[in-house]
Design a protein that fits this description.
This protein is 28% helix and 26% strand. Strands 3, 4, 5, 8, 9, 16 and 17 form a seven-stranded mixed β-sheet that branches. The chain has a six-stranded parallel β-sheet with strand order 12-11-10-13-14-15, sandwiched between helices. A two-stranded antiparallel sheet has the order 1-2. Bound molecules: zinc ion.
Length: 345
C-alpha cells in the first residue's frame, strides 16, 4: 500500500512516498480505500510542527477523507457500514458512551482518536469516524464535508448561533472552512462580509455569498475602518475567525458591542494579547469552535444534497505530488481545496 510518510516536522519536501504493509484491522475498525483526501489546515500545521496534539512520528496525515469501505471489523455496530459503503470522515472518532458523548459533546470525548491516513491508498479508521454518503455526492465534494463544511456548520449555526438579519465577518474566507462558513451564514439569512489579501479572490467570495469583500494589504486598521463603514459604524455581530492570532486584532476591533467572536483555527501558533477591559466594555463573547459531530456531518450532507452548499475545489493531484500540493496550500494563493487522489477511484 503506497502512502506519503512524514518522519519529522518540516517543509513540504519532508514527505516520502513509501510502500508499506497494510495496518491490522481492530474489531471496531473499518478499512477504507481512499478516493480523495483534502489538504487541510490541520495537515499543514501538523507537518510544520505547530500542532502537536496526538502527533507521533512517523505519521501518515490526511483527515478529510472520502472513500469506500473495503473491510469491516467483527464488532462494528453500525449495520449501515459494510464493504462497498461510500463514506466521508469526521476529524476524530469518539467512544459514544462517556459523559461527554452522551451529552452531545462527542468532539471532546476523552477517548477520541484523530483521523489520519488519507495520504495513502487505504487507511484504517474507527467505525465511529466514518459517515455514509449518498451517491448524489461525488468524491471531490465528499472529502470536504466533514472536517471542513461540518466545522463551518458547527461555527455558524451551533456555536455562534448566527440568525437572520445579523452581520457576520468571516476571516480566512477563501479557505475551506471559511468558504463553508460564508455559504452557511448567508443561508441563515445573515449579511456576510469577507476580508481577503488577494483581489483575485474577490469574485469567488461574492459567488459564495459574501455581500461585501474588503481587500486589504497589511494595513489591518484600514480594513477595520472599511468594515465599520460597511456597518454604519456599529461593527459586526459575529466574527468567524479561521486564521487566528494574526487576524485577531482586526476581528476584535470590528466586533460590535454584544458581539460573538468564534475562534475556528490557528494557523501561526502565536500568542494574542488583549486588555480584559476591552472584552467586558464590549460585552463580547469569545467562543471556541472545535471539530465536528456526526449529526453536524449528516446535516451538511443534507444541505449539500439540497443544493445549498458546494465545495470550492482548486485542483486534484496524485499522491506523488503531495509536496507540490502542500506548497500550493501553504502560500494561500489558492481559492479552494487542493485534493489528493491516492488510488484508483
Ligand atoms: Zn466519549
Amino acid at each position: 500500500m503506497r502512502c506519503a510518510v512524514v518522519r519529522r516536522p518540516g517543509p513540504p519536501s519532508v514527505f516520502e512516498i513509501e510502500d508499506v504493509e497494510l495496518q491490522p484491522l481492530g474489531p471496531r475498525d473499518v478499512r477504507v480505500e481512499v478516493a480523495r483526501c483534502g489538504v487541510s489546515s490541520r495537515d499543514l500545521v501538523e507537518r510544520q510542527g505547530i500542532y502537536q496534539r496526538d502527533v507521533t512520528y512517523p505519521v501518515v496525515m490526511g483527515l478529510e477523507i472520502a472513500g469506500t469501505v473495503i473491510e469491516v471489523g467483527p464488532d462494528v455496530p453500525d449495520a449501515g457500514v459494510v464493504p462497498g459503503t461510500r463514506i466521508c470522515t469526521k476529524a476524530f472518532s469518539s467512544c459514544g458512551h462517556c459523559r461527554l458523548c452522551r451529552t452531545g459533546r462527542e468532539s471532546t470525548c476523552f477517548a477520541r482518536r484523530p483521523v489520519r491516513g488519507g495520504y495513502g491508498e487505504s487507511t484504517v479508521l474507527d467505525w465511529d469516524a466514518v459517515v455514509p454518503i449518498p451517491d448524489a455526492i461525488d468524491w471531490d465534494q465528499a472529502s470536504w464535508l466533514g472536517p471542513a463544511a461540518g466545522v463551518g456548520l458547527n461555527a455558524v449555526r451551533d456555536t455562534a448561533k448566527v440568525t437572520s438579519g445579523e452581520t457576520v465577518l468571516v476571516l480566512g474566507a477563501s479557505g475551506a472552512v471559511g468558504s463553508a462558513s460564508v455559504q452557511l451564514a448567508r443561508l441563515s439569512g445573515a449579511r456576510v462580509i469577507s476580508v481577503t489579501r488577494h483581489l483575485a479572490k474577490r469574485e469567488a467570495l461574492l459567488e459564495d455569498g459574501a455581500s461585501d469583500v474588503v481587500v486589504t494589504d497589511d494595513d489591518l486598521l484600514a480594513a477595520v475602518a472599511s468594515v465599520r463603514e460597511l456597518t454604519d459604524g456599529y461593527g459586526v455581530d459575529v466574527v468567524i475567525d479561521t486564521v487566528g492570532s494574526r487576524m485577531f486584532q482586526l476581528g476584535f476591533d470590528a466586533l460590535a458591542v454584544h458581539g460573538r467572536y468564534a475562534f475556528v483555527g490557528e494557523l501561526h501558533g502565536e500568542e494574542i494579547s488583549i486588555n480584559p477591559a476591552r472584552i467586558f466594555f464590549k460585552r463580547a463573547a469569545l467562543l471556541g469552535v472545535g471539530s465536528v459531530s456526526r449529526a453536524q456531518v449528516e446535516d451538511v450532507i443534507d444541505i449539500t444534497v439540497a443544493g445549498h452548499l458546494r465545495a470550492r475545489i482548486d485542483s486534484v493531484l496524485p499522491l506523488e505530488q503531495i509536496t507540490r500540493a502542500h506548497e500550493r496550500a501553504e502560500d494561500y494563493e489558492t481559492s479552494g481545496r487542493i485534493l489528493i487522489a491516492p488510488g484508483r477511484q
